[in-house]
Design a protein that fits this description.
Layout lengths: L1 H13 L7 E2 L3 E6 L2 E3 L5 E2 L6 E8 L2 E10 L3 H14 L10 H22 L1 H12 L15 H14 L2 E10 L2 E7 L3 E7 L5 E5 L9 H8 L5 H7 L11 E2 L1 H5 L20 E7 L5 E6 L1 H11 L4 H15 L3 H22 L9 E2 L2 E8 L17 E4 L15 E10 L1 H4 L23 E8 L41 H19 L1
Antiparallel strand pairs: 1-5, 2-15, 3-4, 3-14, 5-6, 6-7, 7-8, 7-11, 8-12, 9-10, 9-13, 10-17, 13-15, 16-17, 17-18
Helix pairs in contact: 2-3, 4-5, 9-11, 10-11
Amino acid sequence: MASQRRLGLQNQEQTSWTDDLTVCHLSGIGYGTNRIYQVDGTSTEAHSLEDGWLRFREDECFLYGVFNGYDGSRVSQFVTQRLTAELLLGQLTLSRNDADVRKVLLQAFDVVERSFFESIDDSLAEKANLHSQLPEGIPHSQLPQQYQKLLEKLHKIEQEIAGGTTAIVALILNNKLYIANIGTSRALLCKSTADGQLQVTQVSVDHTTDNEDELFRLSQLGLDVAKIKQCGLIGGQDSSRRIGDYRMKYCYNDVEMLSPAKTKPVIAEPEIHGGQSLDGVTGFLVLMTDGLYKALEAAHGPGQANQEIAAMVATEFALQTRLEAVAQAVVDRVRRIHRDTFVSGGERSKFCERHEDMTLLVRNFHYPLGEMSQTSNSPTQGGRIYPVSVPYTSTQGTLGKTSVTLSLVMPSQNQMMNGNHSNSTGDETTPTLTNSQSPTATLQSTNTHTHSSSSSSGDGQGHLFHRHRLPHTLQPDQDGRVEPYVDFLEFYRLWTVDHSEQTVAGAQ
């Protein structure tokens, strides 16, 4: 009976009621599955895709979310379906104020988790029944062969009820943005400033053992936070908040580190930010699972993955003509960076032996799309500011709200383009500068913890670089790769000349 009910639930998921909802075409989704690399650079998939996402609109209410599932996709897919039902079936109207919206979001997450555990009631009952048929006090590995089929059934049931998901959800109502997050997925609000720069602000907080607020919460439950921080993981995951995960919610007393807790240490209560007015905003919103930014951090080191990803998105806005292509191109680029770092055998290759699923959702707010997808036949005066990656610095924290402004002042389109630029989802090239053209990059960062600011155009380590267009004479090998063709010398020479000219002009 239980197996029939589970089959019925699977059939319902295949033909979901959300299929009739209006997909928001002001957004795009990109994703990549997990990979484990071999010594020769080939890779395999450790498990099927476990991430989930949603992007719907109902009248003037817009709902977006990405969900980083683990130990299976059951929880992430359940949340995708049920959370949509809890928020887009009339619960949110234009008359709602900020307090009302926050209340609705809190209630929705609570209902979703309780509903998920109700959905596995039959599995839990079947698990208890199977346990009752096994001899007590004997480890499963030492049971006679006659219990093998029971153990196989028990293992299958345990797989069905295991797993959970983090969540980052964005809601736009009355042209106000609300962010609700649980766990380690992130939201970045990227806005164009009056002087043409791109301001990048993380509007979510990572719920990890590095979060002092989370450690304080856990300490109030009677837990040894020093031991938790040293371990860095809670129940095998680095997130201290998540949806699902039956073992961490109802069997945490069986975990030595968590057994002293007065109540559930791992919770599904979202942290909510907003509403933030979007009136007059030009830019874009980024929602991403931790698989994306952690892959970039593995390749480049911790520090400014947010800024790099925002820069990649802004660059792809100029190159692509569809939001789907923008999001997918960024995911593909991060995957390529991660793989190249592993294959290089360099200092950080040991951190890039594998990566998890990665999902990126981009929502556009009037940001220009496809400006460089075609070259212009007439000269263009002036220049356009394009975001770029910036050097890493240990003073830049990622916890809390961080606002970063970054830009690259480039020559006009006709001066930059060297032939037609084709759209790509892999290792895109950037336009070539002539000797008389000097790029200028600036970084201004404000962090609620460090209160630091800096201005930089490169650190000499190649984090900010100029890449020449790939000559037609270079032929790809059997893996589609070519020999390295990045030349830093001309870039830094131009920057030095430009910097010197500015210094002389200032002195005059």
